[in-house]
Amino acid sequence: MTSANRLLIFAIILAGVAQVLPVMEIKSTWIGSLLVTTNVLICLLGYRTGRYRLFWLVWGLATLLAFLAFGLSNPLSFVTVGLIIVLGN
Q: Are 4 and 51 in contact, with CB atoms under 8 Å apart?
């Protein structure tokens, strides 16, 4: 069974990849869907480990909310959207 610490590191790497791809002008619905699916699977595995359960639950729900409501591939993209809204005014 995978450890929660490794899954946490993998979730952080996925969030970083999702932030870097648009900067490199790589925009694809399929890549975004793959990142969301992988993120949700990591959250499910992390929740099953029993450690950091609240984090895994919140991160998984935030991932689904970000994708369904705004088409974002991870919850950290909320920060980017917020900065654009605040700095754009």
A: yes
Q: Are 88 and 75 in contact (CB under 8 A)?
A: no
Cβ atoms of residues 17 and 38 within 8 Å: no
pLDDT for 61? 92
Asked if 74 and 39 touch (Cβ cutoff 8 Å), the reply is yes
When the pLDDT of each residue in the chain is averaged and rounded to a whole number, the result is: 85
52 Cβ contact partners less than 8 Å away, ≥ 6 residues apart:
4, 8, 46
Evaluated on CA atoms 69, 72, 74, 75, the torsion sign reads negative
